[in-house]
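User: I'm writing a short methods note and want a consistent example. For Dynein light chain Tctex-type 1, I'll paste the sequence; you return only the structure tokens, no commentary, since I'll be parsing the reply automatically.
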Amino acid sequence: VMFAAEEVTTTVKEIVELILQSDEYDPLKVQKWQEQIVDEIIKKLVSQKKPFKYLVSCSIMQKTGAGLHVACSANCDMSLDGISTTRYDSRSMHCIVIVIGSSLTG
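Assistant:
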């Protein structure tokens, strides 16, 4: 089974939008949002019962006009493993979610 990056991206977008769509950036809420986002993504991916271990990273930054650069690297077998990067922007914040799926069958 290959890592389905497009499916993961769709799942991530749905979860991030659900959690962040009605809120303005609030530094006091960022940690809670990040925890909710990564927990919900992990729950959803694990519930699909695909043979992967997942690593999920979530960065949230206030939208101020400053640059935001995020990088991630993994030593993967790209025929089985995969990486998905999803960006969400609202009026007041940026959110970048990276999901790495490591195959349990390779």
